Q: What sequence folds into this?
């Protein structure tokens, strides 16, 4: 599995420019007026992972297949979106479909690009969107509680559980906190997720700054960092302008450009890594002469379920997994060397796959 990240933000903060750069397309317009992105643009990008190159060279693989991440550029919203202002209803519907939110905040000055509120204040911008999402959740919960009342009176266990969780969410929302602050037991996790509340989505704040401030950030990004720490959220500093320029270059030119700018890596790499951390994702590999391939799983995934990411038959007929840690595979020059050194392990159904594992699954067809 990959994951789907929605790029959101007020109009004219640079999110469509960032989307264009990340997906290396011109599908999303980046014009100086609100609501230029009317339909959510979707783009897939390969997740950069240097380990793939090392593994494929050792195995002499004919093909290298990275895992992929989906970005969704969602139409901008304004204050009042929860009541249908601007493109609010569409925004709220589209955001329910993503796994996480990259909240792009304008942290740059540019007199040629108007700000919808007439001032640069990323913390206020973040609060505007968070408030609209919370108001939308409150409205949704109130309607759903009304719809559940009959089933609850009838003693339906699932309805009773949903009502309890919805009321817990409503309490924190009415106290001015997002639903993600509710502590949910493992036994309630499945039902909680099915509620699809907007403010349960993990959020990553993306500070869009000017080229000259891309290395160290600025006063605006410092304020965003402070806000993120209070919310236990992540932040990434990116210059959408730089990312757009990089997207037009070949890899060698891009590396030279980044070096000249004093940057060690592209913003895409930082954004994906932060997104993986946000959703607690990991990567394992399958390696052979035909292909070296990366696969994305959630942390704590057991071997049969990890096998199921490749094909359902692998999970249903799972017997065991032959496992080599990435470091051992590289240091011992491949599968044979790892076997001879006793570094290949045979793991069963209870094994939790680790990030970087090189796996070979055995299963009954």
A:
């Amino acid at each position: 599995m990959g994951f789907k990240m929605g790029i959101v933000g007020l109009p004219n903060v640079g999110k469509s420019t960032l989307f264009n750069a990340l997906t290396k397309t011109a599908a999303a317009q980046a014009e100086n007026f609100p609501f230029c992105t009317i339909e959510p643009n979707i783009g897939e990008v390969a997740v950069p992972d240097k380990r793939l190159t090392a593994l494929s060279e050792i195995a002499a693989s004919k093909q290298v297949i990275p895992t992929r991440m989906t970005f969704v550029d969602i139409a901008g919203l304004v204050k009042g979106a929860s009541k249908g202002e601007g493109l609010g209803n569409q925004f709220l519907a589209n955001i329910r479909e993503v796994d996480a939110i990259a909240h792009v905040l304008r942290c740059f000055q540019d007199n040629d690009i108007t700000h919808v509120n007439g001032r640069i204040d990323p913390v206020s911008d973040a609060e505007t969107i968070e408030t609209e999402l919370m108001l939308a959740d409150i409205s949704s919960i109130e309607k759903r509680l009304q719809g559940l009342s009959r089933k609850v009176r009838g003693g339906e266990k699932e309805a009773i559980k949903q009502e309890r969780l919805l009321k817990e969410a409503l309490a924190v929302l009415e106290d001015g906190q997002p639903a993600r602050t509710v502590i949910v037991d493992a036994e309630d996790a499945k039902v909680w997720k099915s509620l699809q509340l907007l403010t349960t989505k993990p959020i990553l704040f993306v500070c869009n700054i000017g080229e000259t401030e891309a290395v160290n950030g600025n006063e605006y990004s410092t304020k965003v960092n402070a806000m993120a720490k209070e919310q236990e959220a992540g932040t990434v500093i990116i210059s959408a302008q730089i990312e757009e320029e990089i997207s037009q270059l070949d890899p060698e030119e891009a590396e030279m450009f980044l070096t000249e700018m004093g940057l060690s890596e592209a913003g895409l790499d930082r954004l994906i890594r932060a997104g993986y951390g946000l959703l607690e994702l990991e990567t394992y590999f399958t390696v052979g002469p035909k292909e070296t391939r990366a696969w994305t799983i959630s942390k704590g995934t057991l071997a049969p379920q990890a096998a199921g990411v490749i094909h359902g038959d692998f999970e249903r007929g799972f017997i065991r997994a032959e496992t080599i840690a990435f470091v051992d595979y590289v240091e011992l020059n491949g599968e044979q060397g790892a076997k001879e050194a006793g570094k290949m392990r045979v793991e069963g159904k209870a094994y939790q796959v680790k990030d970087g594992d090189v796996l070979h699954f055995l299963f009954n067809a």
